[in-house]
Amino acid sequence: MKKIFFSTTLVFLHLLTLQSQNKKPLYKDKNKPIEERIDNLISLMTLDEKIMQLNQWTYGKNANPNNIGEKMKAVRPEIGSLLYRSTNPEFRNQIQKKAMTESRLGIPIIFGFDAIHGYRTVFPIPLAQACSWNTDLVKQSCTITAKESWLSGLDWTFSPMLDVARDARWGRVSEGYGEDTFANASFAVAAVQGYQGNNLADKYTIAACLKHYIGYSLSEGGRDYHYSDISNQTLWETFMPPFEAGIHAGAATVMSGFNDISGVPASANHYTLTEVLKNKWKHDGFVISDWGSVRNLVEQSVAKDLKEASMKAFLAGVEMDMVDNAYMDYLPQLVAEGKVPIATIDEAVRRILRVKMKLGLFENPYVDVVTEKKRYLLPNYLKVAEELAAESMVLLKNESATLPITSKYKDLAIIGPMVKDSVHIMGFWEGMGQPEDVETIYEGLEKEFKNKVKLHYALGCDFDGNDKSGFEAALEAVKKSDAVLVFLGEKRNWSGENGSRSTIALPKIQEELVSELRKAGKPIILMLSSGRPLELIRLNEMADAIVEIWQPGTKAGSSVAGILSGRHNPSGKLSITFPQATGQIPIYYNMRESARPKLGHYQDIPRDPLYWFGHGLSYTTYDYSPIQLSADKITKNEKLIAEIEVTNSGEVQGKETVLWFIQDPFATISRPMKELKYFEKKEIKKGKKVIYRFDIDPIRDLSYVDSFGNRHLETGDFYIIVNNQKIKFELVN
Ligand code: NOJ
Questions:
Q1: Position 410 pLDDT exceeds 70
Q2: pLDDT (tens digit, 9 = 90+) per residue, 126-147?
Q3: Average pLDDT of 343-357?
Q4: Distance from the CA of 299 to the center of ligand 1, in angstroms?
Q5: How far apart are the C-alpha atoms of 317 and 164, rounded to whole Å?
Q6: Residue range 219-231: average pLDDT?
Q7: CA distances from 325 to 45, 147, 270, 328, 472 (A)
Q8: Which of 183, 396, 497, 594 lies at a CB distance of 3.0 to 4.6 Å from 546, suitable for a disulfide?
Q9: What does the DSSP assignment read for 209-275?
Q10: Which protein residue has the closest C-alpha to ligand 1 atom 1?
Q11: Domains along the chain?
Q12: What is the DSSP string of 486-551?
């Protein structure tokens, strides 16, 4: 105690001397190296000031029902971070001013928020974004989100979510980039680059946060927040690579998950948080807990009380405590009792200060204040929103060229609960998106087909319930029409956090509506808006065409209408498999082969899922040439070039994504049936050919990790797989 008092007095004296000499302390000198500035600042901080840096409070009432925040009484100017739920930049600047002028050392606050798929301009949900296979558009959407967020007072978003997800019952499947590891890693890099730009200190850039570290999506049975039993092999092979890619792309922060990983919860896991993240990958930013995940360690039965939970989370490597106040309340005692070393506190503070310094907050603590008109929904933002939404949509089925809507249709029935909706269509975590900003599907269709097609609208039924009173009017509309567009789907909170469902089928009433409408014998075009893959085993049979439009966001209307008219040629391919039925979960493209491949499948449904990962049709046709290889044998130090020529042999231009898979048929540790290693999307004009090329690097593309994260490269046969083609090559010594 005496020691603490003594050093505090020295700090005060030092500051007084500097003040009397009218000299700026070193940490305020932006020309000095960041690490020197941090050393200097930490040497001046009291224990209380240090511990305050390790906490995040929430400002404003949190609208998310899973994170109900209390209105804060007063913001202590020493607080490390605020979860900021206001859109007012002036207000942020006022709070920041308090931190800069009323705290002894003037350490800026870092303001964070969940801008997951947009801030005010809402882009499609991440699961949909991945179906676009367009990393450039995804990056652009994140740049826009960063700009809207920064101008609203934010420095930091809790995004991207990199939980590779293979259980569609888990509602949060909507927030990530689907079932594949490589796809998640690729979009992780795009998102980090989009949010953080080239230099975090630039205006309009915000810090990214990779979450939920790690294995959260494997919660048992898809029940949110539940236990996840993960072998180290799966951890390294499936879950680690997207995080590693995000860290190497420079992600400033990471969020630790709610889940218990095989007995050691993610927020108390020294192995993942310190040994891997900090020691192996050399991440120099900080880890924030998830909302209350420090406190949850008590529920998860690894800590007897909040004090022990704080100690466990902190010593495992969680530097900032989101909203629990646990660090604030217990770290002082834990330090006094010698259970938490002061050096560990200093290291945690250093990491947080480093991110604040990189963001330039010490020099530029305030954001620009411009009008909402200049801040949100700018025409170029809406253009990206429409393109990304359109490229995310997946044409699942199109019998007898039912789509697009051409002059063969004069009258169209437009039915379903999604048609005039402006809330659910934005999906979960809609940021600060407002229903009044949303272009509804109905508005989009009216604009697109004005004077060309007569639209006959009827609601048909609600999202759920038993009320069939709207069926009759819907059938009347169908009778007047040449084809029927049925817009079905999920409400926004049926997916997202705490949005688990025991079945991924749509409620019975929606399926009944389709079987009723079919009675008129007109072509049925099913338009599905959901935050997860759906069980379509019954609906698939009833529809002539199906488009999964996901939850497209602000530009729902024109993106959907563009897909229907052919103004946008569908180019999305599934980032997640659609099983036949819920009971077929888990089913994903890169499973291990079974011991008896022809046996063991469920007896009551087909063996394959309804639509595999990678499935997606177009209004044109593409012919693939045979795969060409630069050699049929390479050594471990050589590269192999694979090329394929794709011809657009149809009537319209389009964009085609080539997905390159590798199969390693024998290895010391069994390998999945195939693994995505590269993808590329290109535009191909009608009648033209384009070459796609994959440069195979043996270490990167042919090796595998073991359960300790060590890479192995074994010689032998490999296959490259593209669509239905499979070609062999050999890796030799
Ligand atoms: C809980 C969620 O799990 C997480 O994804 C989110 O970032 C935080 N709440 C903050 O809202």
A1: yes
A2: 999 999 999 999 999 999 999 9
A3: 98
A4: 18
A5: 23
A6: 97
A7: 20, 30, 21, 5, 56
A8: 396
A9: EEEEETTGGG-GGG-TT--B---HHHIIIIIHHHHHHHHHTT--EEEE-SSEETTEEGGG-HIIIII
A10: 291
A11: 34-358 (3.20.20.300), 379-584 (3.40.50.1700), 622-732 (2.60.40.10)
A12: EEEE--GGGSSTT---S--SPPHHHHHHHHHHGGG---EEEEEE-SS----TTHHHH-SEEEE---
Which tops the pLDDT comparison, 72 or 349? Answer: 349
Q: Ligand 1 centre and the CA of 437: distance in Å?
A: 24
Distance CA 39, CA 182 (A): 39
Residue 102 has pLDDT above 90, yes or no: yes
Burial, 635: exposed, middle or buried (Cβ in 10 Å; 0-12, 13-18, 19+)?
exposed
Whether 16 shows a pLDDT value over 60: the answer reads: no
Catalytic annotation present for 163: no
For 457-482, the pLDDT digits (tens) are 999 999 999 999 999 999 999 999 99
**Which atom of ligand 1 lies closest to the CA of 209?**
7
Name the nearest CA neighbour of 648 among 692, 695, 693, 694. Answer: 692
Instruction: Please give the backbone phi and psi of residue 383, each rounded to the nearest 5 degrees, phi first.
Output: -65, -45
**Catalytic residue of the set 224, 260, 290, 664:** 290
CA distance 678 to 398: 28
For the CA of 116, the nearest atom of ligand 1? 7
Alpha-carbon distance of 322 to 150, in angstroms, equals: 21
Residue 652: burial class (beta carbons within 10 Å; 0-12, 13-18, 19+): middle
Ligand 1 pocket mutation pick from 62, 149, 322 by most atoms within 8 angstroms of CB = 322
Output the DSSP codes for 478-492: HHT-SEEEEEEE--G
Measured from the Cβ of residue 508, the count of other Cβ atoms closer than 10 Å reads 12
17 falls in which pLDDT band (50, 70, 90)? low
Degrees, nearest 5: CA angle 640-641-643: 150
Whether the pLDDT of residue 14 is over 60: the answer is no
Distance 564 CA to ligand 1 centre (A): 35
